[in-house]
Amino acid sequence: MDRRHFLFAAGAFGVAGFAQASESRLGNMLGAARKGAAAASLSDEDVRAYGAQMVTYADAQHRVAPAGNSYAQRLATITRGLEEDNGLRMNYKVYLDPQINAMVTPDGSVRVYSGLLDAFTDDEIRFVMGHEIGHVAHNHTRKRLQTALAASAARDAAASSGSGRVAQLADSQLGGLLERVVAAQHSQGNEREADDYGMQFMARRNYDRKAAVSALDKMAAMGGGGVSWLSTHPDPKRRADRMRKQVG
Ligand SMILES: [Zn+2]
């Protein structure tokens, strides 16, 4: 897959290599869930705890830019004043990786790939982050997490042992969760909600909303035909046009 093409489509990005081995295992879990196990509802605290496990695992799979690194310094500047958004506590790190990519886990951990920092302006990056935060704010990621965990043996074991609601998941399970919760395609409806949230995020913070348009235009220029997500998701050009109308 051309990495550029799943930037906005997948909702998050570049984690395809996380969990190939655990795919079938998690697939079995999800299959069992569909057969009838209702997804138990997760508290906000549970969602944060699982999200924190996911991002700890993801961080271990990447080269995280140290604080003095120029990419880390730039991201710190871009995200100044963004420690919280609508009640969600945020934290930020750079992955030293040329992919044009970013992701947010359900606990509010934002990870920006250095390739994205190279290719986009500060405000364009803020729109990408706002879009991703939108997937968390609209509970898209929470719903996926609940579905994926509903049939998790690890979680059941923890619950029955009385050791608490939140199980410490194995790396293979965390890799699978990242695939299902962060890297899988969202519906067109979810993508529109995330785009709109990104736009509101820009407006609330007095960032230049035109950056949403230019970010998506750049995506369109980088993209091309023959990409599978284009058949199920609005393409960046159409999304850019939609944002253009909002900017007026
Ligand atoms: Zn998205």
Explained architecture:
The chain has 248 residues and is mainly alpha-helical. The protein has one domain (3-247). It is built from 11 helices and 5 strands, in the order αααβββββαααααααα. The protein has helices spanning 23-34, 44-60, 70-78, 114-119, 122-137, 140-150, 153-160, 171-183, 188-204, 210-222, 236-247; strands at residues 84-85, 88-89, 91-95, 102-104, 109-113. The strands form 2 sheets. It has a 3-stranded mixed beta sheet with strand order 3-5-4, sandwiched between helices. A two-stranded antiparallel sheet has the order 1-2. Strand 4 and strand 5 (109-113) form a beta hairpin. Helix 1 (23-34) crosses helix 6 (140-150). The chain is globular, with a radius of gyration of 18 Å. Residues 1-24, 31-39 and 224-233 have low confidence and may be disordered. The protein binds zinc ion. Zinc ion (ZN) binds at residues 8, 11, 131, 135, 186, 191, 194.
